[in-house]
Write a structure and sequence with these properties.
- This protein has 77 residues and is α+β, with helices and mostly antiparallel strands.
- It has a domain of 52 residues.
- A four-stranded antiparallel beta sheet has the order 1-2-3-4, with helices on one face.
- It is globular, with a radius of gyration of 12 Å.
- The chain starts with 5 loop residues before the first strand and ends in a 20-residue tail after the last helix.
């Protein structure tokens, strides 16, 4: 079993969550997209690759908004 340290949720909505995994700076970190409907990681790679995958497959849905009213779509990226 591999244990990952989840450092930051980058984007999320009702369909998926994009997460930065591990320590280090944002440019060198590994990113993954977890599809909530399929219950699996659909894309893993660099920030740029995951952003492109997000825009192709998940961008047309609502973004998650926190209780304080802040949208964390671009946090950490």
């Amino acid at each position: 079993m591999i244990n990952f340290i989840i450092t930051n949720i980058v984007r999320s909505n009702q369909n998926a969550v994009m997460i930065r995994v591990g320590k280090g700076n944002a440019a060198n970190a590994v990113y993954t997209i977890f599809d909530l409907q399929e219950q699996r990681n659909t894309y893993t790679g660099t920030l740029n690759a995951c952003k492109h995958a997000w825009n192709r497959h998940y961008a047309n849905s609502r973004q998650f908004v926190t209780k304080s009213g802040l949208n964390h779509r671009y946090m950490g990226a």
